Amino acid sequence: YKNLHRDALDTERWNMLHPDEPKEAYVTRLLKDEEGVFVAASDYVKALPESIARWIPGRFHTLGTDGFGLSESRAALRDYFEVDARYIVLATLYTLYRDGKVSKTQVKKAIKDLNIDPDKVNPVRHSK
Question: Where are the beta strands (DSSP E) in 1-128?
Answer without folding.
Answer: 38-42, 60-64
